[in-house]
Amino acid sequence: MDAEEHDRLAERETILAAMLAAAERLHELVDVVQTAPSDDATLLHEVAALLACDEAAARTVLAMPLNAASPARQRRLRGELDEVRQLLT
Asked: What is the DSSP letter of 2?
Protein backbone atom coordinates (compact mmCIF):
# COMPACT_ATOMS: atom_id res chain seq x y z
CA MET A 1 0.00 0.00 0.00
CA ASP A 2 1.42 3.38 -0.96
CA ALA A 3 1.45 6.40 1.35
CA GLU A 4 -1.46 8.10 -0.41
CA GLU A 5 -3.68 5.03 -0.03
CA HIS A 6 -2.65 4.68 3.62
CA ASP A 7 -3.53 8.32 4.31
CA ARG A 8 -6.90 7.91 2.59
CA LEU A 9 -7.70 4.82 4.67
CA ALA A 10 -6.54 6.51 7.88
CA GLU A 11 -8.84 9.45 7.18
CA ARG A 12 -11.70 7.05 6.45
CA GLU A 13 -11.00 5.27 9.74
CA THR A 14 -11.23 8.56 11.63
CA ILE A 15 -14.53 9.45 10.00
CA LEU A 16 -16.07 6.00 10.50
CA ALA A 17 -15.00 5.94 14.15
CA ALA A 18 -16.56 9.37 14.70
CA MET A 19 -19.79 8.33 12.96
CA LEU A 20 -20.02 5.18 15.06
CA ALA A 21 -19.31 7.10 18.27
CA ALA A 22 -21.99 9.64 17.32
CA ALA A 23 -24.52 6.88 16.66
CA GLU A 24 -23.72 5.24 19.99
CA ARG A 25 -23.87 8.57 21.86
CA LEU A 26 -26.67 10.21 19.94
CA HIS A 27 -28.36 11.68 23.02
CA GLU A 28 -25.11 13.41 24.04
CA LEU A 29 -24.58 14.68 20.50
CA VAL A 30 -28.09 16.15 20.42
CA ASP A 31 -27.43 17.86 23.77
CA VAL A 32 -24.25 19.44 22.38
CA VAL A 33 -26.06 20.64 19.26
CA GLN A 34 -28.93 22.09 21.30
CA THR A 35 -26.72 23.91 23.79
CA ALA A 36 -23.86 25.06 21.56
CA PRO A 37 -23.59 28.71 20.60
CA SER A 38 -24.94 29.54 17.17
CA ASP A 39 -21.58 29.81 15.40
CA ASP A 40 -20.50 26.80 13.36
CA ALA A 41 -16.87 26.88 14.47
CA THR A 42 -17.78 26.44 18.13
CA LEU A 43 -20.26 23.68 17.34
CA LEU A 44 -17.64 21.80 15.29
CA HIS A 45 -15.13 22.19 18.10
CA GLU A 46 -17.59 20.91 20.71
CA VAL A 47 -18.65 17.92 18.60
CA ALA A 48 -15.01 17.09 17.89
CA ALA A 49 -14.26 17.25 21.61
CA LEU A 50 -17.24 15.04 22.49
CA LEU A 51 -16.28 12.39 19.93
CA ALA A 52 -12.49 12.75 20.25
CA CYS A 53 -12.11 13.37 16.53
CA ASP A 54 -10.90 16.10 14.22
CA GLU A 55 -13.19 18.82 12.90
CA ALA A 56 -13.46 17.22 9.44
CA ALA A 57 -14.93 14.10 11.03
CA ALA A 58 -17.18 16.26 13.23
CA ARG A 59 -18.45 18.00 10.10
CA THR A 60 -19.31 14.61 8.60
CA VAL A 61 -21.11 13.58 11.79
CA LEU A 62 -23.21 16.74 11.76
CA ALA A 63 -24.21 16.02 8.16
CA MET A 64 -25.21 12.40 8.73
CA PRO A 65 -28.91 11.53 8.85
CA LEU A 66 -30.48 10.49 12.15
CA ASN A 67 -31.22 7.00 10.83
CA ALA A 68 -27.46 6.41 10.87
CA ALA A 69 -27.92 5.76 14.59
CA SER A 70 -30.13 2.73 13.96
CA PRO A 71 -28.79 -0.61 15.20
CA ALA A 72 -28.52 -1.93 11.63
CA ARG A 73 -26.53 1.10 10.50
CA GLN A 74 -24.29 0.86 13.57
CA ARG A 75 -23.50 -2.75 12.64
CA ARG A 76 -22.63 -1.69 9.08
CA LEU A 77 -20.43 1.14 10.35
CA ARG A 78 -18.69 -1.22 12.78
CA GLY A 79 -18.09 -3.75 9.97
CA GLU A 80 -16.71 -1.11 7.62
CA LEU A 81 -14.50 0.29 10.39
CA ASP A 82 -13.14 -3.20 11.12
CA GLU A 83 -12.37 -3.68 7.42
CA VAL A 84 -10.50 -0.39 7.19
CA ARG A 85 -8.53 -1.16 10.35
CA GLN A 86 -7.53 -4.56 8.93
CA LEU A 87 -6.27 -2.90 5.78
CA LEU A 88 -4.22 -0.47 7.85
CA THR A 89 -2.44 -3.19 9.81
From this structure: -
Distance CA 39, CA 23 (A): 23
End-to-end distance of the chain based on CA atoms, in angstroms? 11
Angle at 48 between CA 46 and CA 52, to 5 degrees: 125
24: Cβ contacts below 8 Å, ≥ 6 apart: 69, 74
Q: Tell me the one-letter amino acid at 23.
A: A
For 53-67, the pLDDT digits (tens) are 999 999 999 999 989
pTM assigned to the model: 0.90
Q: Print the SS3 string covering 3-49.
A: HHHHHHHHHHHHHHHHHHHHHHCHHHHHHHHHHCCCCHHHHHHHHHH
Task: Find out whether 57 and 13 touch, Cβ atoms under 8 Å.
Answer: no
